[in-house]
Structures are given as structure tokens and as C-alpha cells.
User: What shape does this take?
Amino acid sequence: MRIVSKGPAARLLIVMLMSSAAAGVSAQEQAQAPSPAPVQEQAPAPAPADNSVTVTGIKSPGPDIKGVITARNGEKIKIATADGTSQVIALDPETQVRAGGGLFGATSKLGQDALLNGLPVTVKTWRVGDAQSGGDLVASRISFRNSDLKTATMIRNGTSQRFEEQTAATEALRGRMGDIDKYNIKGTTNVHFDIGKAELSAEDKAQLCATAQQAQAQENALMLVVGYTDSTGGDELNQRLSEKRAARVINYLQQQCGWKPYRMLTPTGMAKADPLAPNDTPEGKAQNRRVAVNILVSKSVDGMTQGAGTIN
Assistant: This one.
């Protein structure tokens, strides 16, 4: 249909018709469009489980304990103090382990696996509960000297050095040597110590290296090092001290005198047993505070050496 008109009324009619048509199309599109799916509410995600353990109760300062580690069972260590008593102390993940004695007094942080039997330590503690409740002691910081750790490690391993080429020699020598009853003692050197000490004097160090040179000259010679104390102090304390003295001597023989670890029998401490002199005088006690370094040769080897002749 074609409408031709120039009048205002005609133009108004056209505009009304066009608006009505547009409204109809919009209504039709809305009727045909699918209605949106209803939105379902989702339950909030559950909070993650809290696996942390909270320890409640009183935490009070504990005593500082100085002594030697004599046993370890899991997360507990047993410390023997100088007065002969023992104290069980617990470890936790926050326990600090530090070794001192480095350059300019520096300390190094170590793991709890460094806490070996025979290691002299100083332990700072805290107590579960108050002092009156007698709760367990927990170590907050354990400190010791690097040199003491080295000695304790040597005792645990039986030697301060492990070389593959020494293993075969060790087995061959000890296989021929057998028990201690099958040895001849070719010489004994005694080095002496101050009361309660395990330090070597300059004279003692010279004697040890001279003894090592003497033993080197004898084929198949071994060394047996035995530590002793006088009768002062308790049995447990003296046992630890005698073992520490023996370990100190072995350490010097191997590191400074060149004695091979595989030619060293397992060291031992005899505490106050087998005194050289009576312990009722200061002079006698001084003789008994010693380490005996014995040069041993198998009786069978020694017999062949002594019986060897010259073939003309």
C-alpha cells in the first residue's frame, strides 16, 4: 500500500502504525525466548580440617643442666651430671642444637641426630607445668663443643676415619689375631691426667708419637688403649671419664701421630679398676689417673719372628 499525503494528520497516522508494529514484534520475541533456568543455591564448601595439635597448660622455666648424654630413646635423652645423678629430658621440634668452638667462637646449628652417647652438653630447659607440679623437662637449647662431638663420633664409629682400602686389612689382621689372650704385650706407655680432666700435656703428646713410631717398627703390631681414673667420684662418672680419656688418646694417635685406625683395637674405660698404686695418697691417685697404650703382637706371629733364623 502506498500512501501519499502531505498533511500533518497523515504523517501522524504513519508514525502510530509504525510504533504499534514495533511493539508487536518485541512482544513476540519475548514470548518465544526460553525462560532462564532457576538458579540453585550451593551449600558453602566445608572448612579444611584442622590437624594441628594445641598444647594447653602452664609452661615454666626449667633448670640449666650440664652433663654427658648416656642414653637416647626416641625423643628423649638421658643426661648424667657431675654429681652422679641422671635426668631425662624430652626433645621437641623447636629444640635448638648448636656446636661451638669454631673460628672466633662461632657456633653452628646442627640436627638432633648429633646428640650422641658420650657427648658432654649444656641444656637449657623448660618445664611442662609449674615447678611444684614436677612436670617433664623439655630442652629448648642444647650446646656442646665441636671437639667433643668429634670424639663422641669417633667412639660411636670405632674410628675417626673410614677408608675402603682399610677394610680388607682390618679383617685380615684381626682374623689372624683372634682374642686378647693370643697377644704378647711388647710395650706399654702411660700418659697421666689432672683430676677430672682429659686434656693431654705437651709431654704426653710427645710420648704418644714416640710410642706410635715404636709400634710401626713391629710388623702386625696393634694398639690397645685403656683409660683409668682414681677412686675420687662415683662409679658412673669415673666410667665416662675413663672412656673420654681413652678416646682423647686415640684421637691424637690417629690424627697427629699417623697411627692407622685399622691397627687399633676397640678402646675401653676401666674407671678406677686395676690401680697402679694405692688410692689413699695424692701421689698414688696421680699415678692411677692414666691411659695405658699397649703395643700388642699376635703370639703366633711373634713366635715366628723370634724363632726365625738365618739360612747360610
